[in-house]
Amino acid sequence: MKNSRIILAIILGVISQAVLAQTPKGSVLIQNATVLTVTNGNLEDTDVLVEDGIIKRIGQDLNAPNGVEVIDATGKFLMPGIIDAHSHQGLDVVNEASAPITSEVQMKDVVNPTSIGLYRALAGGVTVSHAMHGSANVIGGQNATLKHRWGTMNPEDIIMKDAPRTIKFALGENPTRVHGRGNGIQPRTRMGVEAVIRNGFNEALQYKKEWEEFNSNSGSSTNPPKYNERLQTLADILDGKIIIHCHSYRADEIYMLINVARDFGIDKLVFQHTNEGFKVAPEIAEYTMGASVFADWWAYKFEVYYSTAYNAAILSRNGAVTSINSDSGELIRHLYHEAAKTQRYGGLTDEEALALITINPARQLGIDDKIGSIEEGKHGDLVIFNEHPLSVYAIPQMTFVDGIKYFDINEDEDDQRLSVSPTEMVEPIYLTEENHRCMQGTIRFYGESLFQHSH
Amino acid sequence: MKKTLLRLGVLALSFSVGFGAINAMAQSDPTGKRRITDSYAIKDAMVITAPGQEARTATILMNNGVITGIGSNVTISVGTKVIEGDSLYIYPGFIAGASDAGITKPEDPERPENFVSSNPPDEIAGITPWRSAVDQFNPSDRSVEDLRKIGFTIIQAQPDGGMLSGKSALMLLGHDQNSNLLKENTALAASFRGSRGMYPSTAAGVMAKFRDVYKNAELTESQMAQFSNNLGARRPEITDTYKGMQDVISGEVPVLFSASSELEILRVLKLQRELGFKLILTDLENYEEVIPQIKASGAGVLIKLEVPDDKASEKELDEDATEAAKEQLKRVKEAYQKYLAQASKLEAEGIPFAFSLADVKPNDAQEAIQKMMEAGLSENGAMAALTTQPAQMLGISRIAGTLAEGKMANMVIATGPIFEEDSQIKHVVVDGYVFDYDTKQKKSNGEAPAEGIAIAGVWDYETESPAGSGEGTITITRASDGYEGTITYDDPSGSGKASAPISNIELSGSTLSFSFSVDAQGMSIDIEVSGDITGNTMEGTMALGQFGSFPLSATLNPSFISRK
């Protein structure tokens, strides 16, 4: 009897360990690569040692500790894992499009670590993506920063726990179409969008005050206010606990939100898409955490016609923290090409161009102390390329997250799916849906074909 | 308003039942349905009193719905109806952990004039924790009979609705003139079902709203304490939603959360960790990878009594198929086998589980259990999942789940050991009422058609369903390798008739069976027809998958061609 109890305790212990398992971390020594550190120049014929998920040493002729795998990267290029500041891969739900403010909704609740898009991203050298709520609402849900640890069923394993909270805002045509035109409520215009934001923040201030009063009077007969996660989240934004990532196109609305943020004392603000960012680049540089843009994607709806491929270069050279994102299951496969376009259109240096998909998105997500460059002490998120990643011939060979290899162009199986349906020979593939997911889910509300007008 | 109407309906129903009963007595039961006696004896049957017990010969006595004796030397008193049980096998009545049998969804309330889809009233947004399955349950619904027919005697009936549809209740699948309620408010049914066109519309919205509803119910609870203890405290706002949530936040009643996939299960467990409610997981389909997490949570487990369609996994490839296609097919086959083996993994982990029957086709349930057993689930494990384990989970072990003196007279009586393929259920006893079922020689492929039976020709048929009666023709002609034919039916998308080819036409003995499919609003429904032929008429059923099966009768038009 006693014995069986002990055995039971052991089994239960093992199980609870399995349940609470730490995210896996690995060790690897990559030798003789051309190391593109992004923050400290290029190092020829250099070794990088990752131990227990952390870059321990960068140097020459390093020795691998016992049991650590050695990879010879002679003639190859090693760069930091690519970071995509705007993605919808790995999410089962993108849009809770039903209200102009849904700040209580969390993408972390609906992460799907088996989504094949995450593996395809790894094959494009992307180790971290910012899985965002859609752009149907003025203030959408909170986003999730994902580490692409392919191979787990558990969403908690791929959510980057030490990344700060971020939230999606959206200006312009999408929220005005869904709520104003589609539902007959505010906002119907860009003015309405501003009003929704300002009203939301003012309500959050009142909410915060109510709770402060209640908490300072605790013990007396005061009743607690109604709990409201929506307003609490807005209050957290005002307290600087959450970074805003705002879908935006036009210079006037970008400048509008800068003013709103300044009025409410918010400085954690990143603009997404930002096609007219080049018109307000100095303002973005001075007051915000920068802009995350496409290399050359526009004209998919009226507000996105005034655009230029020089956008990223102009923003960068004006001192704005600038990144290039995918917002697409296809572009996420070759963000290095997207970054390279800024050399053709704007003449950015190699280092500036690589920063657009590494250290700069890391800054915008508040994780630049952990990833985004090859430096001792940072996470072992690395990609080996056959050629310089800004070359048109570049193909990622291996991708590592926390020192563990999750992609290998030579060794991986053809079929890398984690979950296979027992009833379908091959899962159907919907190219349009895979590519443009910003407005996914709104279609059943408003019956419009939104896939052509998605960002 | 809606609720009042519902209550009125229930009242009217019970009034008419009462009226009927009085009538019956006054006119010495003109229905002829009143039974002669409440005492039964099933004599000399093979009795399995509980999962894992050997079958032994015994006589079972029951009176007024209670088992009054089991054994080989029990005395059968005068006035007892005796059922000869030799060659029959008796098992405890099956219990379903969750089911939607007999449940009719209440009509959606009308939207108020000032309706705003971003902030709808709870009742419209699928948040109705105060509703009860008792008000939605109809014991004479065909789906109840469909479940009873396969051995189920007690179900946890769950109300239909949105993310918090209401309170489930334990119902007996008994005589339809009885109330059949065993226990009210056994769990609060929840799901990730969003509301169409309003907040919350997605699983992400539902999770946020669930937290909101839960935490505000807790706050109201603490306000109630303030209000009763302190003079001058503000009156708490007691909403229907709060009232519906009270037993859940106090931990008295579990949440019966529908989660079909591994990811959904993890989402429910996340909510449970955050909020701390008691939990029964239901409708589980894919769960193998999260068995450790399920075990650690201590939640009750109800797996869906269904196995996936094996069309894809049974597929054979041509010889010149590519390697990639072969590899893919291999993975599909593996996935199928993995699916079937899941129940045995729960058993191996020592996690007690039972079955959920919502959206399950009763006709396929037996096959599902058989496949789970072929994939490793033990016979005792399967029997326990149908009897003792749900009884334990639902807190009715004292009265149900096994056969013993003093327990409710709920049992399944089969022509052989229940899990053997040729065994058929002959009687199901619920609450002491004996329901009889026809047992037939099982259709065996290749059985010669009975002498003198001809099916080729044009049949006129009629069906009865809750949606009204339908009619059409079935045309069967001889083909080189059997039969082919067409059926006409009332077009579901409008007026007039539609027709469809029929397939799998089989005449086995005097039983004709065939199937066809109908497109109804973009959904393809497979319909199976089977009937017994006597002369030129056929009596049978038309089965519409999970929608139930309905009686069908048909007549073969006279033919001018002489029979050979």
Automatic annotation (TrEMBL), chain A:
<dbReference type="InterPro" id="IPR032466">
    <property type="entry name" value="Metal_Hydrolase"/>
</dbReference>
<dbReference type="InterPro" id="IPR006680">
    <property type="entry name" value="Amidohydro-rel"/>
</dbReference>
<feature type="domain" description="Amidohydrolase-related">
    <location>
        <begin position="319"/>
        <end position="395"/>
    </location>
</feature>
<dbReference type="Pfam" id="PF01979">
    <property type="entry name" value="Amidohydro_1"/>
</dbReference>
<protein>
    <submittedName>
        <fullName>Amidohydrolase family protein</fullName>
    </submittedName>
</protein>
<dbReference type="InterPro" id="IPR011059">
    <property type="entry name" value="Metal-dep_hydrolase_composite"/>
</dbReference>
<dbReference type="InterPro" id="IPR051781">
    <property type="entry name" value="Metallo-dep_Hydrolase"/>
</dbReference>
UniProtKB/TrEMBL annotation, chain B:
<protein>
    <submittedName>
        <fullName>Amidohydrolase family protein</fullName>
    </submittedName>
</protein>
<dbReference type="InterPro" id="IPR006680">
    <property type="entry name" value="Amidohydro-rel"/>
</dbReference>
<feature type="coiled-coil region">
    <location>
        <begin position="322"/>
        <end position="349"/>
    </location>
</feature>
<dbReference type="InterPro" id="IPR011059">
    <property type="entry name" value="Metal-dep_hydrolase_composite"/>
</dbReference>
<dbReference type="Pfam" id="PF01979">
    <property type="entry name" value="Amidohydro_1"/>
</dbReference>
<dbReference type="InterPro" id="IPR051781">
    <property type="entry name" value="Metallo-dep_Hydrolase"/>
</dbReference>
<feature type="domain" description="Amidohydrolase-related">
    <location>
        <begin position="345"/>
        <end position="432"/>
    </location>
</feature>
<keyword id="KW-0175">Coiled coil</keyword>
